[in-house]
Amino acid sequence: MDEEVTLRPCNLADVDDLYEYASDDKVSAWCRWDTYTNKEDLLNYMKTCMIPHPWMRVICYRGRPVGSISVTPYTGADRCRAELGYVLASQYWGKGIATKAVKLTMETVFKDLKDLERVEALVDVENFGSQKVLEKSGFTKDGVLRRFWINKGTVRDMILYSFISTDPLV
């Protein structure tokens, strides 16, 4: 499995593979974005958000894009923190692919992003699969943020996880 999961920068040629999960209601149910209904909108998102993102990678399984993962740094006095986000095509859930992608990310992101000390991830209290991914990847459950955000019209509780750098800046 280890050599079968790789990360690489996103490019526009990935649109067909990424559309496979971006157009899946099971995937978008846990995401801030709505299910994509056409490739043109996804292509625009890739051009304006994914490709210029400071740390976003495509998750590949056996060389094929099956998801994406990002670490979004905060700014100013919060620049020591960043938020992790990931998404994976539903047919690959439960196979260890997301866990491997998160582990690969955590191996490099503290070197890649200056001043980074802490990576955070927010997970819906009912998204048990994603909770397992983070726990298997070495994240610590910090607590529950009650009534934290609105997803698809419903106020949701979220669990805050964190991963702390082993190489402090101080």
Automatic annotation (TrEMBL):
<feature type="domain" description="N-acetyltransferase">
    <location>
        <begin position="5"/>
        <end position="162"/>
    </location>
</feature>
<dbReference type="InterPro" id="IPR016181">
    <property type="entry name" value="Acyl_CoA_acyltransferase"/>
</dbReference>
<dbReference type="GO" id="GO:0016747">
    <property type="term" value="F:acyltransferase activity, transferring groups other than amino-acyl groups"/>
</dbReference>
<protein>
    <recommendedName>
        <fullName>N-acetyltransferase domain-containing protein</fullName>
    </recommendedName>
</protein>
<dbReference type="InterPro" id="IPR000182">
    <property type="entry name" value="GNAT_dom"/>
</dbReference>
<dbReference type="Pfam" id="PF13302">
    <property type="entry name" value="Acetyltransf_3"/>
</dbReference>
